[in-house]
Amino acid sequence: MHAPDRAAAPVRRLGLTLALVSALAFGGSGVMAKPLIEAGLAPLQVAWLRAAGAALVLLPLAWRHRRLVRERPALLLGFGMLGVAGVQACYFAAIARIPVGVALLIEYLAPALVLGWVRFVQRRPVSREAAVGVVIAVAGLACVVELWAGLGFDALGVALALAAACCQVGYLVLSDHGSAGDHRPPPEPAGVIAYGLLVGALLLTVLARPWDMEWAVLGRYAAMDGFEVPGYVLAAWTVLVATVLAYLTGVLSIRRLSPQVAGVVACLEAVVATVLAWFLLGERLGAIQVLGGALVLTGALIAQRTTPLQAAAEPVARGGGGRRPKPAGRSGPAEPPGRGGPRAPLDAAGRAGSAGRTGPTDSPPGSGGS
Q: 3-class SS at 42?
């Protein structure tokens, strides 16, 4: 009777390994992008580099899933506009003014903001556990930004990070609304990612005007807390590792793990980003800020587990291990990549496994994120 469990164990281990690789890859996006911004590139230009480079690499994947253009145009546009262009532009603009870890932690408020939308805009009830998650996340944010000291970081940078989180929320709300009553088979998440990056790159092309970009920055060295790294290495890492590898391993991990488990692992993205920024960029956080970051992630995890997936007469956002009836015929993503993010990868039903990311989502993915 234990044979199926033994057979599934290697699959779970592989899924966990892939999820960890995805979190590590996503976590380095802001750390590798910030030196390029400080070397002379505008945040929008760095966001365009990331999206356009990844879209180019994933063109074969987009061609393979070209039917999505006909079947799911609204989903692809929503992911591209909000999950890619919106999250990336706001996240990279934020890290130009505030520490990478702080920006990403603020972006992890997205699950809590979704619950706020449900309660105060849609006027639907949420459970007590969901409300607790929101309160914990907001309290953690107050510690991260040192609110009692009159905001310890640049106010515009904090606002831009919040805007990145709101872009994730917008994508979540639009995609969840669009899935209501939809009995079509769920879209292939890898195809959604490929077309989302393509749409995002096209939109960012208009905003970033890459033909005016100082391309020479990629041929020079950028400073990273006392040592120098070639600009093209940072750009290549941002495209190939922090975007392409991060998304693909995230998708593959969720096919071997539940979205909930993958989402918990994806929260390591914020930890990785903070640690890397500490050692590579010299962005050190105080003890209260580290504690605040832990509270933000705890609240995000609770909110993520209780994010509503259906309309019902009972509380739509349940806490903890409460079981929810699964609606028939529902599909479509409930969360993007973070993700500093489009950071958060999509699961087999088109849903993202985490807040961040988003896409990133910087993440949001991804979260993203980020």
A: coil
Q: How large is the angle between the packed helices 100-107 and 128-144, nearest 10 degrees?
A: 160
In order, the DSSP letters of 111-173 are HHHHHHIIIIIS-----HHHHHHHHHHHHHHHHHTTGGGT-SS-HHHHHHHHHHHHHHHHHHH
Structure tokens at 141: 């944010």
Q: Look up residue 94 and give its two tokens.
A: 């934020």
Residue 333 confidence (pLDDT): 40
In 3D space, the residue among 229, 193, 190 whose CA is nearest the CA of residue 38 turns out to be 229
In the DSSP assignment, the letter for residue 50 is H
Q: Which residues pair with 340 in a beta bridge?
A: 369
CA distance 99 to 23: 19
Strand ranges (DSSP E) for 195-246? 221-224, 227-230
Q: Give 353-364 pLDDT, tens digit per residue.
A: 333 333 333 333
Under DSSP, is residue 359 helix (H, G, I), strand (E, B) or coil? coil
Low-confidence residues of the chain: pLDDT under 50:
1, 178, 307-368
CA-to-CA distance for 116 and 123, rounded, in angstroms? 9
Helix axes 268-280, 3-27, angle to 10 degrees: 40
Residue with tokens 């033994």: 6
Alpha carbon distance 223, 34 (integer Å): 10
Q: What is the tens place of the pLDDT at every residue in 322-344? A: 333 344 333 344 344 444 444 44
Check if the beta carbon of residue 15 is closer than 8 Å to that of residue 253: yes
Residue closest to 68 by CA, chosen among 168, 240, 166, 193: 193
Give residue 256's pLDDT: 76
d(CA 79, CA 366): 11
pLDDT score at 259:
56
Torsion of CA 72, 80, 112, 150, to 10 degrees: -170
